[in-house]
Every structure is written in structure tokens, then in C-alpha cells.
Write a structure and sequence with these properties.
single chain, alpha/beta, Rossmann fold, six-stranded parallel beta sheet
Length: 408
């Protein structure tokens, strides 16, 4: 009988690339029975760009691509889960009696795989109550997509950060394995819990099929941005600024694969509308086709000095560019900068807060050295093939599961 896995999700969309497309599907392919407990907000599930599903996925329980999906209303959980910040002696009485925890217990799984700070709290409840109520010892994974709390995040007071971190370290005592997304985040965990089992599973996609090496023969220049953004970020302003500068010098295109999240908009000045292409949301598996004509991939993380998560980030788009042989242009961020310098797969603007002018100058400089671009492109694809593709990450994921089940 196949082992049962339960993914416990507090706020990610249920088709999240990491959780659903990669981890859940890989575990299913390996023969595990996979269930996901996922939140509805205001009665709806949401697409990756924040668009609510209004005419589909309405059943409380359904199967999607072979994965059992069990839904719950987030509004009925948040007050209970926020009890994580209370004294530990009230957790069982006030924190664990919520639909997320209770629905997960009903799955009677062997391993519970949590993905956020609050779902980790639910996971602690699941582990304790499964032992107390059923006499079953289950394994608990914390998939730390980022550091919560971020030690540098100013939105929390110092006291709040200390409380959040104290509770995190306390919860980690009940975690059997931590999975995270970068080596720097792994180092942070080990600095606080030296004996904690931690594995890095990068946010990398499967190797793009039908890959064709880039030649860079054309005098045109196409820059790509992959991902969604909202009105709070300065991404849109920088896209316009870079396009304004570069289009005066070369035949220039800025291709945005994704774009504004649901409820937001991106207004392009009329004189630049032929220079900026917006694909809108595209299916995860279709991304490589949209990147075929992109020469350089752009990533900009603002206010890096105020966020350890940004310093340590290796986002999905980073590996998506590498996967398609696209050299990366990024501002000065510790983890991405270290990776790019190690593998010679892109270019770093030497500023933590780079402007449109900074990026435009770097792009125009890179365009003039086609041989360098070609070599960077080859390096990108090579490191994905040899080290970082999801095919390699899948082996790490399955190894974690095998270790946990061997010990059970």
C-alpha cells in the first residue's frame, strides 16, 4: 500500500509551481498517495496571478491531475493559527482546533509537509494530536520558502521579531526535516539548530525540452521579465525607464511573461507600446516557449539591505532563465551574485538599489559583446543540465522522504 503524504498549505495558491507542479507531482510519480489541504479565501481558490476561480474547483474535495485536493475556509482558521504567538500552554486548547489541522489529521498520512510559518504551526498540532488521539507517530517537514520572520524586516517591531523567532525555534524541535530554497537560508537554520536535518531544494524547473542554443547574431535586443507584480513594487516604472533609454539606442523589446496581478494594471506610454510585450499569465509548462526569443533575463529586488530574504533569494525566474540559456542581469543581492560569479552565467550591477539607467547601461554594454553573451548563455544551460534542474532536485526530495520513512 502506498505511503500517504499530506501537503499542508496556509496561503499559497493550490497550483503553486513549487508545491503542486514540482513537489506534489514528483511524489505522486514516485508512487506516493498525495493529498493537499489548501485554503479558500471568500469562498474561492485562486490562480497563480491572484485571479479567483469562480466557475471551477467549487467542490470542497476534488482531484486535480491525480492529486487529491481538500479545501477549507481560511477565515475560519486565521485566529486559531495566530495563537502561535501566544504562550505554548494555550496552543492545544486554542490553536489546534481549526479546520486546517483537523482536515489534515483526517487524512491519516505518514508524512505531513508544511509550507509556511502558520502551516508549520498547524503541522505541530497535527503531529501532537495524531500521537495523542491515534497513537501514531508521523513525520513533519517544514518547507521554508523564505525566512519567517525576516530578521531585517522593518514591518515587525524588534519585540515581534524576537517572539516570532522564539516560536519558530520552539516549533523546529518537533520538525523531522527542513527543506529550503538557498544555501544561505540553510546556513541560517544550522547556525540556530546545528543538529537539524536541512536539505536545499532549489526553485528550479524541469529541463526545457527542444532547447536550442542561442547564437546572438541579431542586432536586436530582447529583455525578459518573468513573473507577476503588483502596484506596490517599482518594477513597472523600471521596465518603462529601461525601455525608454534602450529603445533610443537599439532595436529593443521588453517582454513581460506574466505581468500585473489580478486587480492591478500596467499602463504603457503610447510611444513605447510597440517596445513592451505583455503576455499575461501563461501556463507553467509553456514558459520555455515564451522565453525562446529573450536574450537577457532581468531580476530586480528592491530594498535588499532591509531584507535577509531578498539577500538570500534564488527565485523561480532565476532558474527559469538559466534553464533556457538566458544570461541573467540582477542588482547586487548576495545569493544571486555568488551564484552568477561562481557559474559565470550573468551580470551583476554593483548597486543594491539599481536604477533604470544602471540597468540600461549594463544591457547596452552586454549587447556589444555577442561572444560573451553566447558564452554566458552556454554556461546557463550547462549548470542546469549538470546540477540544478528539477530532475536533480527531485532526487533530493525523494531522498528526504526515503530517509524519514526508513526511520519510522
Amino acid at each position: 500500500m502506498p505511503r500517504k503524504i499530506c501537503m499542508v498549505v496556509a496561503y499559497h495558491p493550490f497550483m503553486d509551481a513549487r508545491i503542486f507542479r514540482k513537489e506534489a507531482k514528483s511524489l505522486q510519480k514516485a508512487g506516493y498517495n498525495v493529498t493537499m489541504i489548501v485554503p479558500r479565501q471568500n469562498g474561492h481558490l485562486f490562480d497563480i496571478d491572484g485571479t479567483p476561480f469562480t466557475n471551477s474547483f467549487r467542490n470542497k474535495v476534488f482531484t486535480h491531475e491525480g492529486i487529491k485536493i481538500v479545501t477549507y475556509n481560511w477565515e475560519s482558521c486565521k485566529n486559531h493559527l495566530n495563537k502561535v504567538l501566544s504562550n505554548e500552554n494555550v496552543w492545544e486548547a486554542q490553536g489546534f482546533n481549526n479546520p486546517l489541522t483537523q482536515l489534515a489529521i483526517q487524512q491519516d498520512a505518514d508524512i505531513y509537509h508544511t509550507h509556511e510559518y502558520l502551516s508549520l504551526f498547524a503541522g505541530v498540532g497535527i503531529k501532537r494530536l495524531m500521537k495523542k488521539q491515534k497513537g501514531k507517530y508521523v513525520k513533519l517537514i517544514y518547507d521554508s520558502h523564505e525566512l519567517t520572520p525576516d530578521p531585517l524586516d522593518a514591518k515587525y517591531s524588534e519585540d515581534a521579531r524576537k517572539n516570532l523567532q522564539q516560536k519558530l525555534l520552539y516549533m523546529l524541535e518537533e520538525v523531522d526535516y527542513v527543506i529550503t530554497v538557498s544555501d544561505s537560508i540553510k546556513s541560517w537554520y544550522l547556525a540556530h539548530k546545528p543538529n537539524l536535518p536541512v536539505e536545499v531544494i532549489y526553485n528550479s524547473p524541469p529541463l526545457a525540452k527542444h532547447y536550442q542554443p542561442k547564437e546572438y547574431h541579431s542586432n536586436n535586443l530582447t529583455i525578459g521579465y518573468e513573473g507577476n507584480f503588483d502596484d506596490k513594487k517599482g518594477i513597472k516604472e523600471k521596465i518603462i525607464g529601461i525601455t525608454e533609454i534602450c529603445s533610443k539606442r537599439v532595436a529593443f523589446q521588453f517582454k513581460v511573461i506574466g505581468g500585473s496581478r489580478f486587480g492591478n494594471s500596467f499602463l504603457i506610454p503610447k510611444h513605447l507600446q510597440s517596445n513592451v510585450q505583455l503576455t499575461g499569465w501563461v501556463d507553467y509548462q509553456a514558459i520555455p516557449n515564451h522565453l525562446k526569443d529573450v536574450d537577457i533575463g532581468w531580476i530586480d529586488l528592491e530594498d535588499v539591505e532591509y531584507s535577509l530574504n531578498k539577500k538570500y533569494a534564488l527565485p523561480n525566474k532565476f532558474f527559469s532563465y538559466l534553464n533556457n540559456g538566458i544570461p541573467i542581469l540582477v542588482n547586487k543581492c548576495h545569493e544571486m551574485e555568488s551564484f552568477i560569479r561562481k557559474h559565470q552565467c550573468g551580470f551583476v550591477v554593483e548597486k543594491t538599489n539599481a536604477t533604470s539607467q544602471d540597468y540600461a547601461e549594463a544591457l547596452l554594454l552586454l549587447k556589444e559583446d555577442k561572444e560573451k553573451l553566447k558564452q554566458l548563455s552556454q554556461n546557463c544551460r550547462k549548470v542546469m543540465e549538470s546540477l540544478y534542474s528539477w530532475e536533480n532536485m527531485e532526487k533530493r526530495l525523494l531522498s528526504v522522504y526515503q530517509q524519514l520513512l526508513t526511520k519510522s
